Amino acid sequence: MTINKNIELPNKPSRKVEVSKIFNIDSKMSVKGFEEKTEWVPEIDNGYIFDKETTLSILAGFNHNRRVMVQGFHGTGKSTHIEQIAARLNWPCVRINLDSHISRIDLLGKDAIKLKDGKQITEFQEGMLPWSIQNPVALVFDEYDAGRPDVMFVIQRILEVEGKLTLLDQNKVIKPHPSFRLFATTNTVGLGDVTGLYHGTQQINQGQMDRWHILSTLNYLDANQELKVVLSKVSEFNTNKNQEILINMIKLANLTRSGFENGDISILMSPRTVISWAQNYKIFKEIVDSFKLTFLNKCDDLEKPIIAEYFQRCFDIEITN
pLDDT tens, position by position, for the chain (321 residues)? Predict the structure, then answer.
C-alpha cells in the first residue's frame, strides 16, 4: 500500500472510550481516542478477542505515553493486538518490521535526487521515524529483537524520557508530538536466542531494555476462545459435525505449540494456520490432504513423523506418504 504522508492527521485525542464496552474485558478504565478515522488507522476485526493483561498494558501506553513491549511466541497476535486497539481508538498506527534489511538510513531518511523547475537537486527525504515522531502516530517496531545494532542505537535515542531525535546530517533536533506513542513486539525478552527456537534474534543491551516502561507477555488463546475466533472467520464450520473437526484441529495446533516450546519440532501451527486449514478443508473436502497442503508440507522431513503422530492422536488417522 502506498502511504500518503501529506494527509492531515488529528492533533489530540478527545473521545472518551469505556474499556469494558469496547474491548469486552472487565475493567473500569477509560481512555482517550480520536474522533475521526484516517487511512492510517487499521481496519477493525470484529471477531478479535482481547487478552485482558496485554490490552490494559497497551492501553496504558496509549493513555499515559508509556513505552510498551509485548513479548510472546510467533502467531500469538502481538502486533495485531496493538493494531486492533489502535483501530478502536482511531489512533493512526505505523508498523515497521525490524528485519535484517532495515537499516539506519531506512529509518532516518537519506538524500535523494529530485527534479525541481527542470533541474536536478539533492533534497533530504525524511524516513518513517522522523515523520512518525512529529505526528500523533502509534509506531510499532515488530520483531524488535531482530534489529541490527546500528538500528537499535537509533531507536535508543527516542526511548529517553523526552524522546528527542537528533538528525546530525540536517543539524536538526526533533521533539516528539504529544500524541506520539511507541510500542514493540518481540519473541524473546532481550536475552537473545537462548532456546534455539528463534534464529536471527539478538541480545538487547540492558540500558535499552530498561527504557521500556511496560513488558507484557501474550500467550496463545485457550481452546474455547480460539474456536470462537476461527468460527468467526470460517462460518461454514458452525455445525456440530464441523465443529468437532475444528476442535480436533485446535487440539493438534496446541500439540505443535507444546512440541515447539519443548524443542521437539521447529515449526508450529498458529491460529492463522488453523483458519487456513479449515478453509482448505472446505475446498478439498478431505482432512489429511488439506492438512498436508496447509502445514505438513512446510515441515522438515525429520520432524514429519512427530507431527504425523500428533495428527493420529487427534484424528485417529495414520498419515502415509
Answer: 345 565 667 678 989 999 999 999 999 999 999 999 988 999 999 888 899 999 999 999 999 999 999 998 877 889 999 999 999 999 999 999 987 778 888 888 776 677 777 777 777 677 788 889 999 999 999 988 887 787 887 787 788 767 777 776 666 788 889 999 999 999 865 444 444 444 444 566 666 788 899 999 998 889 999 999 899 889 888 888 889 999 999 999 999 999 988 889 989 999 889 999 999 999 999 999 999 999 999 999 999 999 999 999 999 999 986
Phi, psi of 195, deg, nearest 5: -95, -15
pTM of the complete model: 0.82
Q: φ, ψ for residue 228 (rounded to 5)? A: -65, -40
Would you give the DSSP letter of residue 191?
Answer: B
Joined together, the cell numbers standing for residue 89 give 481508538
User: How far is residue 321's CA from residue 315's CA, in Å, rounded to a whole number?
Assistant: 17
